[in-house]
Write a structure and sequence with these properties.
Blueprint lengths: L7 E4 L6 E4 L9 H14 L1 E4 L6 H11 L2 E2 L14 E5 L24 E8 L7 E5 H6 L3 H8 L2 E5 L3 H14 L9 E5 L1 E3 L6 E3 L6 E4 L4 H14 L6 E4 L6 E5 L3 E5 L8 E8 L6
Parallel strand pairs: 2-3
Antiparallel strand pairs: 1-2, 3-14, 4-16, 5-16, 6-14, 6-16, 7-13, 7-15, 8-9, 8-12, 10-11
Length: 280
């Protein structure tokens, strides 16, 4: 039986991330527990649980307690759970899914609020995921830079080569039948979080193409600066997976990057994204 009093929170780093103990996600999750977890999540940007050996049905049920699962546009989900995709890197593969700093599917008009990742099989070493706090990225820019960026919107596209190559293995194996060739959406560079009211930097190297009203060439120097700035080590944390580890990240104010340092070993995760708002 889960109780709010049993929750224990350990911060992973100065910037973001907290590991939660004392919760069994397979057991009933009452309203007060979900409210408490949501508050912790909003404060830390990404939360981690250990030893949650959930079946796909239990994983989907847990996700529905936090939001509304939505399907990933490019890869078909599990036969009984289309909202769950498998994020696998096989022993012979050299490219990992999403292996570049990004916020999930920022090229959609309404990108997901959150992503949940459940580790099923982990390599003997490596395969960690890095996260970066984009409130800090925003707040540490100069007043002049923030003033300029506040007026800008950025066009995000699904077909930038660095990221589209990271999904090719999964698409070849299991393409979503109704996937468009390309998705694109423009969003504010300074994004106001709908729940915390805080402003975060909302661009990412995987999807950001150019500022609206500017060419790619004109946008490149400023975007290049922001891409380097937003992942400074002091804005990040690093999570080491074990089978049964589960992460829930806030896709509105964090970036993530799975480290591709385990060639020859298999890593298998289940992934669900939760519906979000149009960024403002
Ligand atoms: C993703 O970008 O959703 C995958 C993250 C990971 O495999 O750690």
């Amino acid at each position: 039986m889960n109780t709010v009093d049993a929750i224990r929170v350990s911060r992973c780093a100065g910037a973001l991330g907290a590991e939660i103990a004392g919760v069994d996600l397979a057991a009933p999750l009452g309203e007060s527990l979900i409210d408490a977890l949501r508050r912790i999540w909003l404060e830390h940007g990404v939360i981690f649980f250990r030893d949650q050996n959930l079946s796909p049905a239990q994983f989907a049920a847990t996700a529905r307690r936090f939001g509304e699962p939505v399907e990933y546009p490019f890869v078909k989900g599990l036969p009984d759970h289309p909202e769950i995709i498998e994020v696998i890197k096989r022993e012979h593969e050299t490219v990992n899914f999403g292996g570049v700093w990004h916020s999930d599917t920022a090229y959609l008009e309404r990108p997901p609020m959150a992503t949940m990742l459940l580790a099923r099989e982990t390599p003997p070493y490596g395969g960690d995921t890095l996260f970066a706090n984009q409130y800090l990225a925003w707040e540490t820019l100069s007043e002049g830079m923030r003033g300029m960026l506040t007026r800008l919107r950025c066009l995000n596209s699904s077909d930038k080569a660095d990221v589209s190559r990271t999904r090719e293995d999964r698409v070849r194996e299991n393409a979503a039948p109704l996937a468009k060739q390309r998705y694109a959406a423009a969003h504010p560079v300074a994004r106001t979080h709908p729940e915390t009211g805080r402003v975060s930097l909302y661009v990412n190297v995987a999807h950001a193409l150019r500022f609206e009203g500017m060419s790619e060439e004109e946008s490149a120097p400023i975007l290049g600066y922001l891409f380097a700035h937003q992942v400074k080590p002091e804005f990040t944390c690093r999570f080491q997976w074990r089978p049964g580890s589960l992460a829930l990240w806030d896709n509105r104010c964090t970036l993530h990057n799975p480290v591709n340092d385990y060639h020859g070993s298999r890593r298998a995760m289940l992934r669900i994204t939760l519906a979000g708002d149009a960024p403002v």
